[in-house]
Write a structure and sequence with these properties.
mainly alpha; 15 helices; disordered C terminus; membrane; transmembrane
Length: 330
């Protein structure tokens, strides 16, 4: 009895582990994530354009030597390593040439042209923007950079791309289900859920999130907000601010845990859209809000992205399997 139980337990754990990691999935989900990451990366990279020379040129605020000193990378004892293609820019001209190449590579990645190559080049440039001046990084980089790396593993240009359009014109067979597509989606899912849990637990260590005043401090900042909600402080409406503050902490903790319950994913994804839309308007971090809303697609069921004919063919395939003898294919 006991031996049988442990055998079933090990088979159950092993089967669950294999089903979680080692499956083949359609590249549709990673193709949708490519568009999300590409749009955000394009906005992020383009934001450097107007002040690129002011920040990174030799006579700018953060030339190469100063960046090394501020990060401690010039001290061999620290063993700190930062690398960026912009370290090779010796003039403003070369700086803007590299910047133009980066924008073009990210644009090609977003539209899905020669996606395998464009994904790697675009990721190198996104990492280079972040690593050129780590002290300037904000909320976007810790999530965008890993997602770009994960998408390099998968055929993220298989659908919704110029590559897919060219493939259809040449009547080339569709890209088959891929293990790397499944792996990339799993990595994004784990990263996003852990990111939610990290944000929620970090807020638990701050008194202003416990006493309910945190949202008021965000609402009261006039420089970054897109809408003015300071009227919530008056006329006895402060309870809304307190409730909003506690809702944010609760939602981020709940999302990180319950998003793995499949039946709750549509509800949590819809709530996440409203959650980040409201925070983006209040805080002004609208690029980060777009990224967080878009990455909810990593948890979208595959059937949502399939056409009716493909769903019908999948049903027929499953019915054919059900009518086969038990020993077929073993």
């Amino acid at each position: 009895m006991l031996g049988t139980y442990f055998n079933r337990l090990s088979e159950s754990i092993g089967g669950g582990w294999n089903n979680f990691w080692f499956q083949k999935d359609s590249p549709r989900t990673v193709s949708m994530l490519r568009i999300v990451a590409g749009v955000v990366a394009l906005i992020y990279a383009f934001s450097f354009t107007s002040e690129l020379a002011i920040w990174f040129s030799d006579g700018g605020v953060l030339p190469y030597g100063r960046t090394m000193r501020l990060t401690g990378a010039d001290d061999p004892a620290n063993q700190v390593l930062y690398w960026s293609v912009f370290y090779f820019a010796n003039s403003q001209l070369s700086l803007y040439v590299l910047h133009t190449i980066g924008l073009i590579s990210i644009l090609l990645f977003t539209v899905g042209f020669q996606t395998r190559i464009a994904a790697v080049v675009a990721t190198v440039f996104v990492l280079s923007y972040a690593e050129r001046a780590p002290m300037l990084t904000g909320l976007v980089e810790p999530l965008l950079c890993p997602v770009m790396l994960y998408l390099c593993l998968a055929p993220c240009g298989a659908y919704f791309s110029v590559d897919a359009w060219l493939r259809d014109r040449k009547s080339v067979a569709e890209v088959p289900d891929s293990f790397m597509a499944h792996l990339a989606v799993r990595l994004v899912q784990i990263h996003v859920s852990m990111f939610y849990l990290m944000m929620g637990t970090a807020k638990l260590g701050n008194p202003v999130w416990w006493n309910g005043e945190a949202m008021w401090w965000l609402i009261a900042q006039p420089d970054s907000r897109l809408i003015d909600l300071t009227f919530l402080r008056n006329n006895g409406m402060s309870t809304i601010v307190f409730a909003w503050t506690h809702w944010i902490v609760l939602f981020e903790l709940v999302f990180g845990l319950l998003i793995w319950v499949r039946i709750l994913r549509p509800l949590l994804s819809i709530l996440a859209a409203f959650h980040w839309l409201a925070l983006g308007l209040v805080t002004g971090h609208w690029v980060f809000a777009i990224l967080m809303i878009g990455l909810s697609l990593a948890f979208a069921p595959l059937e949502v992205l399939k056409s009716d004919s493909e769903v019908a063919s999948d049903v027929d395939r499953e019915s054919d399997k059900a009518t086969q003898p038990a020993g077929v294919g073993v």
